[in-house]
Amino acid sequence: MSRAKRTARPVTDEDCILVLQGGGALGAYQAGVFEKLSESHDPVLWVAGISIGAINAALIVGNPPASRVAKLREFWQLVSSSAALPDLTPNPAARQAVNEASATHGMLFGVPGFFAPRFPPALFQPRGTPGAISYYDTRPLLQTLESMIDFDLINSGCVRLSVGAVNVRTGNFEYFDSAKQRIDARHVMASGALPPGFAPVEIDGEHYWDGGLVSNTPLQYVLDQPGERRRLVFQVDLFASTGEMPLTLPEVTEREKDIRFSSRTRLNTTVELERRMVAQAAHRLRARLPAKFRDDPDLLALSQVCGAGAVDVVHLIYRSKHYETQSKDYEFSRLSVQEHWDAGRADMAHTLRHPRWRARQPESGGVQIFDLTSDRPSSTRPAL
After folding, report:
1. Which of 99, 269, 339, 344 is deepest in the core (most CB within 10 A)?
2. Hey, is 355 helix, strand or coil?
3. Cα 317 from chain centroid (whole Å)
4. Concatenated DSSP letters for 159-188?
């Protein structure tokens, strides 16, 4: 996870926004993406995240620009410090077995700086207490966040932070946004409180679970917020919508998880960008009409469907290695974390080198979508 020399980037009249999906241990991919991105696209003005994406987002916004990558590295080295695994990549069957052993170790003994098994377990905890409704204690994460993140910096407004969570009582999705309220460690933890592993987090008398229960990406929230400048959104997803036909039951579980967590992301992305294109078309039509027709109620309604500002969305999507299984999002070995980090950095570098990206015209209007890693060779799953 070494730092590379920073390269200059021409200043353009656009806001650079980072959108981070949930995905547990796969979140190291986002750190690798940010490391490469930070070398060419400073400053990022807004970071929005859900679950592990919220943790990465807070680590980025809650540290000065010069130390953000180092702080991400410190966090990921901490949570991957419990086991050192041999590199068995040439032997897929052996590597898969080692990964499963690492995931089982985390389930039984917890993850350093993140969570620990409850003792006594939930069945023996008093009814209605956090211990009775969750398997793990997340106080280690609270200590980690408070030691690694400057919440005063987050609340200073230098960079906007938004994290999504679900109200347990109402089932409604809610965003905690530094542009609208004061953020502390509870808001970040609420966004990652995935049941039944983690207990809900209480904030102002309400309890919140992981935002991924409703939507695993903050893109919709970001695009719905008002703003006049062009937006350049890097959306970093941790579950791929496309994949191979599973051949075994463990592969079925993995594929199901990929589809479950990516489907809402794809739906939100498609719907929000289509709404934005409709609004932009209505604005262009209104400008061409005679003055007496410009205030037609139907036309005004169409133009106000959502913000009509220009936006570019760049997709970075983690694609699983052939030896990864359904445990990939809770397998925190140092070897896997490093691989995820390296994959994120490589995908971001590939995107920035891509001819279509280099030909991008930031000053143009409308909506542009870039998914420039889909043409990279993908790992195939050999027979084990």
Report:
1. 344
2. helix
3. 10
4. SEEEEEEEETTT--EEEEETTTS---HHHH
